[in-house]
Amino acid sequence: MPSGTEFARQVREILGDTQSISAQELARRSAQVEELVYRHFRSGNVPDFMRPENYVPITVERTINRVKYEATIRVCPDYLAIGSNDDYVLMPLSAGVAQRIADRFQLALPTQMLVDTLDDEARRTGGYLPFVAAPQLAERVTNPHTGKPVIEGELGHRWNFRVYGQYEGRWMLSGEFIEEQNRRATEARGRAGNPRGIRSGHKKDVIYDNLNFFVAHEGGQPVVIYHRPFQGLSNWHNVSYLDYSHGIRFVNGDVSLRITEENGRIHTEPRTFASLLNDKDLYRLVSHCRVDTTHLYRGESIPLQTAPPPRARQQAH
Domain boundaries in the chain? Predict the structure, then answer.
């Protein structure tokens, strides 16, 4: 099976110059890359940390209606990656393909609350890595218009959309950006001593949230993205969108629930992550809001509201 370096080269060749092709051709090439990621994941070409038996347990405790609940949730230590233990590449995916993988392997995506918990754990154990924004990445990749390295500082303090395109989305979808972001993440892991526990901060998470039921700013079904310090909570883009910054962190679909009744009786109960998230009381173990994930990110049409809740308006893209 190809290493991460070889896989990244294949991705770069498939995507080509994302600036000069039509939107339809870009969508076709992106879909080809996503299908390649799916096939390699399915065939097991992933580092060991991606395998569910190596997921890290996170225990969350809440007292709800005078009953104490302890939920043990197992999460992937890092974001979706293709390759070997020593040579892998972190790969962005659209929410739809991520959910396709989750459904096949009895996994789930996280919530805002769970991402915050993982960020706090990573900060505590030394695994919190810096997020590198697009302008900083651009200064270490080739300018797609000149074919030459970008001169440091050429982009100024912000993107020049007159030169690089509206929202610079085309460049952010390039194989070069994926590779450069991985180089930065690898360097950061090395400086942190290659932490073996939870690693976070270096990607934006694709999550489940009740924002999934509000129209995306771009229109249509949204993908909900979260990064606490850099972007907050956002349903700006529609569900088909992805770029280099998006990370897919899988959660084991099975949750162990330890229950201490008011009378002191203790018992355990197996639950699924999805059932907890949609429970009228127990969602508080894993989320700030109750979410029915039955139809999310599965290509189904969901009735959408137009005005986002106040907490999302304050944290818009």
Answer: 4-313
Q: pLDDT band at residue 315, thresholds of 50, 70 and 90?
A: very low
DSSP single-letter state for residue 213:
G
pLDDT tens digit string along 50-107?
999 999 999 999 999 999 999 999 999 999 999 999 999 999 999 999 999 999 999 9
What angle do the packed helices 4-15 and 23-43 form, to 10 degrees?
A: 160
d(C-alpha 87, C-alpha 5), whole Å: 7
Beta bridge partners of 90: 81
> Could you tell me if 238 and 246 are in contact, meaning their C-beta atoms sit under 8 angstroms apart?
no
What lies within 8 Å, CB to CB, of 204 at 6+ separation is 131, 225, 226, 227, 230, 231, 245, 246, 247
Q: Which helix (H) or strand (E) holds 114?
A: helix 112-125
3-state secondary structure of 273: helix
Against a cut of 0.85, is the pTM above it?
A: yes
* Residue 127 token pair: 């695994």
